[in-house]
Every structure is written in C-alpha cells, then in structure tokens.
From TrEMBL:
Pfam families per the UniProt record, alphabetical: LRR_R13L1-DRL21 (PF25019)
UniProt protein name: R13L1/DRL21-like LRR repeat region domain-containing protein
Signal peptide positions on this chain: none
Organism superkingdom: Eukaryota
Length: 600
C-alpha cells in the first residue's frame, strides 16, 4: 500500500525489526529521496531499488543484507550510503562504487572477500570521493591469494581528506603504502583489526592528526619495529598528536622497538591513554618517556616488564592477570616509579601480589584490588603512615589471604566509600574507624565470615549507607552494633543469614532510616513490631527470598512508606494479594507496590 504513494519523498522504517522484505513495487516511488532501513531485518533489496533515481539517502545500518542490487551504480544522486555489500552473485559489483560520485560522510564496505576479479578490471572507486570522511573496509574469511588482497587494497585507496579509517579482516601479508601515507593529514582515528596474515604494521607515525590508534588481533605479528614510526627520514616527532593507543589480542607479539633518531623529540609526546590487552608473549613495549601519559591499562600480559616511565601526569593504572607465570614477582614494580602521581589503581587477577605498599602512594584517591589470591597486607611497614588524605574509595574483593588491616587502621580522613567482599580470612574491620575515617558515608561488608564485630569506638557518625551480606558471626552480635548512634544513616540492608528469626529489634536501627532491605534471611518468621514501627522516616522497604516470613505485624507498617517490594516470599505474597489477602489492608496505603514481580 505504501508503494502506491507515488509522491512520497521520505520513507523511514528505522527499528522495524520484523521487516524482512521490500516489495518490487517500491521502484514505483519515483520521487523517493530518503530511505531509512536502519535496524530492520531486511535481507535483500529488490533490483527495482535502482529505479529510485532521485534517491540521495539510503541508510542500511544494522540490517541483514549480504549484497547489493544489480546496477546499484545507477543511483548516481546518492550522497548517503551507509553500507555497501559485495555479493557472491556479483563479485565485481565493487565497480558500481565508481559511479556514485557524491558519497559523503560514512561508508562501510562489507564482504570484500567476494571481490574475485583481478584488480585491473576496475579503477579506484574511492579515490575521487572528496566528501567521504569515515571509511570501513571489512573482509570475512581466509585468503586464497595474498597478492590479490594487496592489489585490491591498493585500489581501495580513499581521498586524502578522510578523518577515520577502520580495516577489519584484511587478508594480505603487508599493507599498501597509502595506509599511513603522510598525505592523509586529516585522519584522527584508525583501527586495524583481524589482519591475521600481516607480519608487519604500516608506517603510521607520520599521520600528523592521528589521535586514536587501535591494533587488534594480528595473529602473525611478532615484533613491531621502526617501520611503524616513519617510512622516510623525518625531523618531526612520530605520533605527535596521538592521545590513545590500544593493542589487543596479539598472541605472538613480543616487543615494540622504541624509535631512536637524532634531532627528533619524544615519541608519543601527547599520549594520554595506553591499553594493552591479551598480549601473552609481550615482554617490552613503548618508550620509557611518556610525558603526557595519564591512564595505563594492562590485562592478561603475563610476561610484560614495563620500564620506569617518566611522567608527571599519570593518575590511573589498571593491571589484570599480570605475572601469573612467575611466582614471587613484585607486581608493584611497574607502577612504584609512578607512586607520587597515581590517583587511581585497579588490580585484578595478580596471583603473586602479596603486599600492596599503600604508604608509597600519597596522592591515591581510588584503590580496587580483586581476585589476588596471595594478598596478605596493604602496607610494607608494620604500621600505616600518619595520613592518607587523598584516599576516597577502597574496594577489596576475593582476596582469601587478607587477614587484617595494618596496625593502627587506615588514617584516611576523606575516605567516603569502603567495600570488603569475599575475604574469607579477614577477621576485623580497620581500627578506630570513628576517628580515622570521619568522612565515611558508605560501608559494604559481604561474605567475610570471620568478622565478628565492628571496631571499638563504633562506626563513623557520617555513615549513610550500610550493607551487610553473608557475615554470620558479625550478625550474631548485631544487638551490639549501636546503629542508633548514627544520626546520618539512611540506608541499611542485611543479606544472606540463616539464624535470624525476627528482625529488626526495637533498639537496632535509627529512626532516620529511609530505606531498609531484608534479603535472603532463610529462617526469618516475623518482622519485629516495635522495631519496624519506630522507623518513622522509612520510605522504601525491600523484602526478598525470605521463604518462612508469614505475615506483617498486627499494627502494620510505618505510614511514611511510599514504596515496597516483596519477591520470592511465598507465604507473604499470598497474604498480600490485592483486596483479598489477610495483610492487604496493612499495605494498601503504599503508592508503589511490587508483589511477586507484579506492580500494583
């Protein structure tokens, strides 16, 4: 029916996810200028599409197309063609791009493995497209003839005004000269991925505007040498605009040779972010002088030895899966040289890390240590330094050998968030929390079964959020928590306990509380009437996975409640059925109710 609207100029079918077919009669829409099929299930365009000779915008983003209609080159007015698919039935259809002179902005060319014609049967379909800014070239599958792939890539050279280039799955062994040619003065971002036959990288160092470079999944690459920096003699700094450099999934890569030349300044002088992911054989990388480096991320690079890095701006380091092949390695060595500048450290899966020298990082704001099976302490010395004023967040999880905190506690006056999770041998919280951590606002203690009590002096008075999960010994002494002395406490949740039968007792929680969570308390049978009624500021109540909780108190719940959820509590859900449950009258005043995944 739409195809009878002969004066239609704009047709937008974006996100019609079940649309699979366009009728042949779409060719009758002679006035159609704008066709948007983005995020549809279209698998094939009818050949009649080429009759839409006024079409200037064709959006095929995230469709299921695998090839273009025959003679797509007849749509000579096209300015926007987001995706071009080289089909098996017409492998030479790459030639049709030569007729589309007005293409601009973004073009993705897919299935280039289907170009089977020899390269001398067509010209350079992209070289004249001066308004094309972003180009993606994609292959899928193995190469039968590497020389053919190189010749094809030569023919795909774009105009030098390009600002973004993505090459994915290229099957040649080397790149043509144009990839990295200094004439491409506008390229800002480049990604080379899945080029598993390439044994060397193109010369990219002289791309004067390049700010972000990603190199991923080069299976055959073993070393990166000076060819990366320059192809001819130059007095300019290589990569003089680069801010982000990423290497990922490089199974054979062993080293990156530093660039050394007379009268040439720093390599990577503006580099701010360096990411190294899954490079298991990498031993050495990047210059030792990175004056602008701010963020370093290392993940699954077990052999990597990082040279001392000279930088005044480094503030964030994340290390994951480091040193696992070498027991006894001091895994902090790569970042100890940065101790005076680092603000954020995130360490995960570093099995030989025994001690984190907290005292060496005076500017540290955020510390996260996860799944470090040998971690025993947070300080090299017997006692922690006098102050850690910059520290605002500490999160330690899955560290089974961490037994206690340094003697004297953590004197971090500005710490506002502390989380201790799955530390099976940890016996206590930091000493003197009330005086040493006066700014603490959120405390989470989960799956720390050996912690028996809060420290002497109690919890900090500014605490607003307290979460306790699977800490049976700690919960056993809950009547000594003295939470009513916390004038700022707004959120409290208790999770995973088998002992409690009634909760919360009358003197346990402060009347300032606005949110209460009672979760996975297996033997809980009742809510204490006096304890719940005194919570006069309570707005939100969450009860989940308490299979033995049978009913609410006789006097009901606080009138202040505006939201309540009851999930996986079969007895209670039955009694709270709308209009007919025995406890319905006790909760019907609450505006927002969720009972057993149903909103009422």
């Amino acid at each position: 029916m739409i195809c009878t609207l002969y004066n239609l100029q704009i047709l937008i079918m974006q996100s019609c996810k079940e649309l699979e077919v366009l009728p042949d009669s779409i060719g009758k829409l002679k006035q159609l200028q704008h066709l948007d099929l983005c995020q549809t299930a279209i698998g094939m365009l009818p050949d009649s599409v080429v009759l839409l000779t006024n079409l200037y915008h064709l959006d095929l983003t995230e469709t299921k197309l695998q090839e273009m209609p025959l003679q797509i080159g007849k749509l000579t007015k096209l300015q926007c063609l987001t995706d071009f698919f080289v089909g098996k039935r017409s492998g030479s259809s790459i030639k049709d791009l030569e007729e589309l002179h007005h293409l601009r902005e973004t073009l993705r060319i897919w299935n280039l493995q289907n170009v089977v014609d020899s390269a001398d049967t067509f010209g350079s379909p992209l070289k004249s497209k001066k308004d094309l800014k972003r180009l993606e070239l994609r292959w899928d599958g193995d190469a039968d003839d590497s020389s053919h792939e190189v010749m094809l890539m030569e023919k795909l050279q774009p105009y030098v005004q390009l600002s973004s280039l993505n090459i994915d799955g290229y099957r040649g062994t080397t790149f043509p000269v144009w990839v990295g040619d200094s004439a491409f003065t506008h390229i800002v971002t480049m990604e080379l991925a899945g080029c598993k036959n390439c044994y060397c990288l193109p010369s990219l160092g002289q791309l004067v505007s390049l700010e972000k470079l990603s190199i991923k999944a080069f299976d055959s690459l073993r070393t990166i040498g000076e060819e990366l920096y320059v192809s001819t003699t130059s007095t300019e700094n290589p990569f003089r605009s680069l801010k982000t450099l990423e290497f990922e999934d490089m199974p054979e890569w062993e080293e990156l040779t530093p660039f050394v030349a007379e009268n040439v300044g720093d390599t990577f002088p503006l580099l701010e972010q360096l990411y190294l992911t899954n490079c298991p054989k990498l031993r050495q990388t990047v210059s030792s002088h990175l004056p602008s480096l701010e963020t370093l991320r290392i993940r699954d690079c077990q052999l990597l030895r990082i040279p001392s890095t000279s930088t005044d701006g480094m503030h964030s380091v994340r290390i994951t899966g480091y040193g696992s092949q070498y027991a006894g390695i001091n895994e902090m060595e790569p970042i100890n040289c940065l101790s005076t500048t680092l603000e954020e450290i995130d360490i995960e899966k570093c099995p030989s890390l025994k001690c984190f020298p907290l005292e060496l990082f005076p500017k540290l704001k955020s510390l996260s240590i996860k799944n470090c099976e040998s971690l025993e302490s947070l300080c090299n010395e017997e006692e922690i330094p006098k102050d850690l004023d910059s520290l605002t967040s500490v999160r330690i999880s899955e560290c089974p050998k961490l037994v206690s905190f340094p003697k004297g506690g953590l004197p971090a006056r500005n710490l506002n968030d502390l989380a201790l999770l799955t530390c099976s041998t940890l016996t206590c919280l930091p000493d003197s929390m009330d005086s040493h951590l006066p700014s603490l606002m959120e405390l989470t203690v989960g799956q720390c079964p050996e912690i028996e009590c809060f420290p002497e002096g109690g919890l900090p008075s500014k605490l607003q959020i307290l979460k306790i999960c699977a800490c049976d010994k700690l919960v056993a002494g809950h009547m000594q928590w003295n939470l009513q002395s916390l004038p700022s406490l707004l959120y409290f949740s208790i999770d995973s306990n088998k002992e409690l039968e009634s909760f919360p007792e009358e003197t346990l929680l402060p009347c300032t509380l606005t949110t209460l969570g009672i979760l996975s308390i297996q033997n809980l049978k009742s809510l204490d009437e006096q304890g719940i009624q005194q919570l006069s500021a309570l707005k939100e109540l969450k009860i989940s996975a308490c299979p033995n909780l049978e009913s609410f108190p006789k006097e009901g719940l606080p009138s202040s409640l505006s939201s309540m959820s009851i999930l996986r509590c079969p007895f209670l859900e039955q009694r709270c059925q709308q209009d007919k449950g025995e406890d319905w009258s006790k909760i019907s005043h609450i505006p927002n109710l969720e009972i057993g995944h149903y909103n009422i």
